[in-house]
Q: What sequence folds into this?
């Protein structure tokens, strides 16, 4: 059973969904763009019912209580700090961290910066940042797939374009791979004052980020062959950035929206990963 909650921190109050009883294995789920914590509905329910204490926050810019104005306030170090602050407020010393899309980008960075706090890492869709940047520089296919990164960094123009005509362009991002009612929910959230700007500021702040170190905690990386944003070069070379036990799973004929398009498959892989690495 899912419950809505809030997590007060020094940076503001995060809205979140939670499942499972406190005292269970601690798991935090980080959503990507342009979604929210509800993207993890299936995983929250399954893991919470399986003995875990699972929390999925609406992240910085998505939670109305943590929606600063400046691009610099969305620096990767700030996003790492959010995860740590929420874990501290929950009383979690070590926890399993799962992220999708830009939520995975943050998860990679947290695991690299604070490996003592992370029991296991699961990244969905988005590869290790170093592998991604190398692919962007060396692989024309990846550079073409990621053109939206540059576009989203423009001031104000993306907001107007994405929300025009009943947010037609924003809706198109999902490629009709998830239920219409879920897309409507995301659009409703992002039409609130400054919400889309907060979400896009993640992209605008990315050039401010420094290098991400190799990962030293057990890692599962899940990528799908029909992901229009992430090509095989970055996906396959992510293995070079993990020195701990590493599992790469390639899901055939699925889009970028794995958590919602293939919730059973992803949850099965995630549970296997958690059971393999208990300590």
A:
């Amino acid at each position: 059973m899912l419950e809505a909650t809030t997590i007060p921190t020094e940076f503001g109050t995060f809205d979140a969904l939670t499942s499972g009883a406190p005292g269970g294995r601690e798991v935090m789920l980080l959503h990507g763009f342009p979604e929210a914590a509800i993207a993890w509905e299936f995983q929250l329910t399954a893991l919470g019912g399986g003995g875990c204490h699972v929390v999925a926050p609406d992240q910085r810019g998505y939670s109305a209580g943590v929606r600063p104005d400046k691009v610099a306030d969305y620096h990767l170090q700030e996003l790492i700090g959010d995860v740590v602050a929420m874990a501290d407020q929950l009383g979690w010393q070590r926890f399993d961290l799962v992220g999708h899309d830009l939520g995975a980008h943050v998860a990679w960075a947290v695991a690299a910066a604070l490996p003592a706090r992370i029991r296991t890492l699961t990244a969905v869709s988005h590869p290790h940042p170093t592998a991604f940047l190398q692919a962007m520089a060396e692989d024309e296919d990846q550079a073409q797939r990621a053109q939206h990164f540059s576009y989203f960094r423009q001031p104000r123009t993306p907001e107007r374009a994405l929300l025009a005509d009943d947010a037609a362009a924003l809706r198109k991002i999902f490629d009709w791979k998830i239920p219409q009612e879920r897309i409507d929910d995301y659009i409703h959230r992002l039409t609130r004052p400054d919400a889309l700007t907060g979400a896009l500021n993640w992209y605008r702040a990315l050039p401010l980020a420094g290098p991400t170190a190799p990962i030293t905690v057990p890692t599962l990386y899940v990528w799908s062959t029909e992901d229009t944003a992430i090509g095989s070069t970055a996906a396959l070379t992510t293995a070079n950035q993990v020195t701990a036990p590493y599992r790469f799973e390639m899901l055939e004929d699925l889009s970028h929206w794995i958590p919602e398009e293939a919730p059973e498959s992803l949850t099965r892989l995630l549970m296997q990963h958690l059971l393999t690495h208990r300590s």
About this structure: The longest helix spans residues 157-172. The CA atoms of residues 87 and 205 lie 23 Å apart. The two ends are 26 Å apart (CA to CA). The chain has a mean pLDDT of 97.
